Model the fold of this input.
Amino acid sequence: MIDRYVSPAEFKRLVSALLVVLGFIALAALFGFIVVPGLRYQAQAAPDTPVQGARGQTGWLDPTDFPVTRKQVIPPIDPKTVMTPNPELLARGKALYAQICATCHGAEGKGDGPAAKGLNPKPRNFTEPAGWKNGARLEDIYKTLDEGIKGSAMMAYKDLRRKDRMALVHVVQSLGAFDHGPSDPQAQEALAKSFASAGEVIPNRIPVREAIDKLSQEYQSAPALTATDPFLRDYVLDARKAAQTLAGIPGWEANDEALAAGITATLPGNGFAPAVATCTPTRWTQLRLALARK
Done:
């Protein structure tokens, strides 16, 4: 039918041109599915920050004494870059291990770090196959770093970005020459999807010591009660403690119920006499008015 419109030679040229176009479309599709996602991960990946002494440096054995860090918003990462060890990832993991883990687990992972003697239960010996609470597979160790282990000194390390946690996972596995067991394909797939599908937010943080200092600076002690009303002398044992108690009761100046609830909830030891708990509604009103005149 088509030979009525084009010659055989022209038909062959048209078919050749069509095949070239189809081949170009196929190559473009492969580029879009394979190359572009990798470029996207590379473009979005946050640069690795230098490994700092998060623990065991400024505070020696104090795990709450770590450097001040600002909030970070980290985009999804390519699972291929963290699910299997590579020289760059292992180097970062070893640096993190030395500054975060070695204090308890020891430089060689034998559970004999300088802090180990004071811990019960003892830190895990990574060179031995027995006793792993969550297991020794890649996904098991990551779970331990992500959640910690209740009843032990092993805390959750959610303050570390997930890439750094995976770097530590590979280092921990490398410390034991034994067979860590076959990984669960479903667990590994779920872990890989979590890396690729969602980013993470590393919040601002400051050392607990510095937080306490800031709270102490912001805290202002309430002035002691100075009223000489004989009525107050029956119910106030410690004028300074009583003033501090009142400072923690919002709206007490205009509300008898708020005053009564706030004072009785912290008896004894809040500066008020235990007898205040037996006050009638009328007496609470008189007490409130007398305190307001302090």
